[in-house]
UniProtKB/TrEMBL annotation:
<feature type="transmembrane region" description="Helical">
    <location>
        <begin position="12"/>
        <end position="33"/>
    </location>
</feature>
<feature type="transmembrane region" description="Helical">
    <location>
        <begin position="144"/>
        <end position="166"/>
    </location>
</feature>
<keyword id="KW-0812">Transmembrane</keyword>
<feature type="transmembrane region" description="Helical">
    <location>
        <begin position="113"/>
        <end position="132"/>
    </location>
</feature>
<feature type="transmembrane region" description="Helical">
    <location>
        <begin position="172"/>
        <end position="189"/>
    </location>
</feature>
<dbReference type="InterPro" id="IPR036259">
    <property type="entry name" value="MFS_trans_sf"/>
</dbReference>
<feature type="transmembrane region" description="Helical">
    <location>
        <begin position="378"/>
        <end position="405"/>
    </location>
</feature>
<feature type="transmembrane region" description="Helical">
    <location>
        <begin position="84"/>
        <end position="101"/>
    </location>
</feature>
<feature type="transmembrane region" description="Helical">
    <location>
        <begin position="232"/>
        <end position="252"/>
    </location>
</feature>
<feature type="transmembrane region" description="Helical">
    <location>
        <begin position="53"/>
        <end position="72"/>
    </location>
</feature>
<dbReference type="InterPro" id="IPR011701">
    <property type="entry name" value="MFS"/>
</dbReference>
<protein>
    <submittedName>
        <fullName>MFS transporter</fullName>
    </submittedName>
</protein>
<feature type="transmembrane region" description="Helical">
    <location>
        <begin position="272"/>
        <end position="291"/>
    </location>
</feature>
<keyword id="KW-0472">Membrane</keyword>
<dbReference type="Pfam" id="PF07690">
    <property type="entry name" value="MFS_1"/>
</dbReference>
<feature type="transmembrane region" description="Helical">
    <location>
        <begin position="298"/>
        <end position="321"/>
    </location>
</feature>
<keyword id="KW-1133">Transmembrane helix</keyword>
Length: 430
């Protein structure tokens, strides 16, 4: 067995699909993180005091988009569903490039782009992980997902670096076109993964799984019904809500401090790009050398619980010393932990489930629930600051939320580890 096999815990026949999955995430996140600093700068341009409106608009757009996604999912075979969605979003990127080039109202276009990119990110990333949860079985996912997730971190490492270097020469329009081009290789990688699924993955002979040649059964609202009918899925919903709440509290404080310290928009793009670059570099190292070993030695619960506990300690530190350097450290800690540990662990929770849960319930949780949590957290933050609550007190509220997030993560991981071959979605306790 080669050194690379041992490094990513791959068994014979698994290296090629693992590398294909790694590269798929690399392309997706490279394009997204190239645009993320631009989005953050556009959000600041519209006024930090108005960010909660952008979060609410994103949630409303998500509510409209999820039924359309479900309708298409019920009519297009799973084997080619990713192609249809990604081609649609690539055309959207080109459309926004044209709009930002021609628009007479850059602020309105900036706000529209901010909302759209938030929707784009959740759909393309959620669908990519749905496909991976469909391709790999439970044991393969536990061994390979942390290393596969390193593709996202490498893309997140390259993306902001490229964006920061090229924004002055190409402008936002050029970055949008480049991001659209990066979506195209994912179509070929999807085919490699689905072909291998039938011979060595979750669809191999003898494995119990639905054939990918058929669409996912159900109606546009099936995902909601699946979530409401399963305590396990409701537990994942609560986990995502707590995650988004802590993220939003930190995000608002970051936006406020960056707007105060760096008034120039190009400076803001470079600051956000530097933070993204640091996060992805540390995430990549953790995914390659730490996360997989933690998952195999301590289980999924450790991936889901330890990071929120550290974030709670970070909030307490921020309450004691509310400075940009402390905030940046906590932001990096939270995001590194999410990408390297929490995200792979959260995706493992879906692997034992059926195709409807992987594509419909998961999409509902990753989009509507996540952005709903963002919107609620944004208004809660605005309420707490509006009534004059000090930043230290808001940070302590964030610490309490992070502690609840940690406890729920541990329980979900424990439930996943002890379900055996049965589907957790059929169980009565999370």
């Amino acid at each position: 067995m080669s050194l690379l096999h041992r490094a990513i815990h791959a068994r014979p026949g698994e290296l090629a699909p693992a590398l294909a999955a790694f590269t798929l995430l690399l392309c997706l996140f490279g394009g997204y993180f190239m645009l993320r600093p631009v989005r953050e700068s556009m959000g600041v341009a519209g006024g930090v005091e108005n960010l909660q409106w952008l979060f609410s608009a994103t949630f409303v757009v998500m509510l409209l988009a999820v039924p359309a996604y479900g309708w298409l999912n019920a009519r297009v075979p799973r084997r080619i569903f990713l192609d249809c969605v990604y081609l649609f979003f690539a055309s959207n990127l080109l459309g926004f490039a044209w709009l930002l080039w021609r628009t007479p109202d850059p602020l309105r276009a900036a706000r529209a782009f901010y909302v759209w990119l938030s929707v784009y990110n959740l759909f393309v990333v959620s669908l990519a992980w749905s496909v991976l949860a469909d391709v790999f079985d439970r044991r393969q996912a536990k061994r390979l997902f942390p290393s596969i997730a390193a593709g996202a971190s490498l893309g997140g490492l390259i993306g902001p670096l490229v964006g920061g270097l090229l924004v002055s020469d190409l402008g936002t329009v050029g970055l949008l076109i480049l991001a659209a081009i990066l979506l195209l290789p994912t179509l070929a990688l999807r085919r490699v993964l689905m072909d291998w699924r039938g011979s060595g993955g979750a669809g191999r002979p003898g494995a119990e799984s639905e054939p990918p040649e058929r669409p996912v059964p159900g109606n546009p609202f099936s995902g909601i019904n699946q979530v409401l009918g399963s305590r396990y899925l409701l537990g994942i919903c609560a986990f995502v809500l707590l995650l988004s709440c802590t993220s939003t509290f930190l995000y608002f404080e970051q936006a406020r401090l960056v707007a105060a310290l760096f008034p120039d928009s190009h400076q803001q793009v470079r600051v956000f790009a530097l933070i993204d670059f640091t996060v992805q570099a540390l995430s990549l190292a953790c995914q390659l050398f730490i996360a997989g070993r933690v998952a195999q030695r301590f289980g999924v619960g450790a991936l889901l619980a330890v990071v929120p506990l550290l974030v709670a300690l970070g909030f307490i530190g921020l309450a004691m010393l509310p400075q940009f350097s402390v905030l940046a450290s906590v932001m990096v800690l939270r995001r590194v932990g999410e990408y390297a540990f929490v995200r792979p662990g959260r995706e493992m929770l879906f692997v034992p489930l059926g195709a409807p849960e992987k594509y419909r319930a998961k999409s509902f949780i990753d989009t509507v629930v996540y952005r709903g949590g963002d919107a609620l957290s944004a208004w809660l933050n605005a309420l707490l600051t509006g009534i004059g609550l000090a930043a230290a007190a808001v940070a302590l509220v964030g610490a309490a939320v992070a502690l609840a997030w940690s406890a729920l993560g541990w329980r979900l991981g424990h439930r996943h580890e002890h379900t055996g071959s049965s589907s957790p979605a059929q169980e009565t306790e999370p």
